[in-house]
Amino acid sequence: MNEEERTEGTPVGRRVVLGMLGLGVAGVAVGASVQDRVSRTLAPVGPIGDVLPAAGGFRYYSVTDSVKRHSAATHRVAVSGLVGRPQAFRLADLARLPQTTLDRDFQCVTGWRVPDVHWVGVALPDLLAAVGVSPQARAVRFTSFDGVYTESLTLEQARRRDVLVATQMDGKPVSHDHGGPTRLYVAPMYGYKSLKWLGGIELTGKVEPGYWENLGYDVDAWVGRSNGRDDAPT
């Protein structure tokens, strides 16, 4: 899930997150009330503290034991695959592209939610336009510089204006614990789609299931619905 606690925290290890898998999938299927009960059942204790969903705080999850820190000065987001102009974007390059702001909730599949998070970054369709998408492209694959986590969207999903390469969060640069210097934010989907520590974006010919999809999570993770209708609740 690669989500995080709003205050600094200790990562919940891979085994703990894997233990959430079955109940998390059940939460997607049966709705918010069951997800709330699931989240209370799974509320972490010990090093991470007991930040419950009702407190409005992020939880910090990682599928690896540690993630190497990238500095803002040296970080790159490499865009490759079925594009006309592959490029490795520095933060300064991203800042020169059109900037998009969103005030949207962050909803975890296990039930907790953080309302009205202020996001700033480059809308993914603007980034894709900058590199030129090949007619053969049908999907987008995202890789984390943690070396393990991956995610994917269809090209249609990736061209939504509420999908960001986020560089700021709640008025500050995205911190390392929150997935910085750059992270993905997919507003209409559950948090496991919002890949942290974004290092690579690859245009592909088909959707390649990500880390959690290969363990049973839905590829299309729309919050509160099983399809992508814009008139459905989010």
Automatic annotation (TrEMBL):
Q: What keywords does the record list, in alphabetical order?
A: Membrane, Transmembrane, Transmembrane helix
- State the InterPro entries in the record: OxRdtase_Mopterin-bd_dom, OxRdtase_Mopterin-bd_sf
Transmembrane portions of the chain? 12-34
Q: Which residues form the Oxidoreductase molybdopterin-binding domain?
A: 68-212
Q: Does the keyword Chloroplast apply?
A: no
- Mind telling me which PANTHER family this protein's record contains? PROTEIN-METHIONINE-SULFOXIDE REDUCTASE
UniProt name for this protein:
Molybdopterin-dependent oxidoreductase
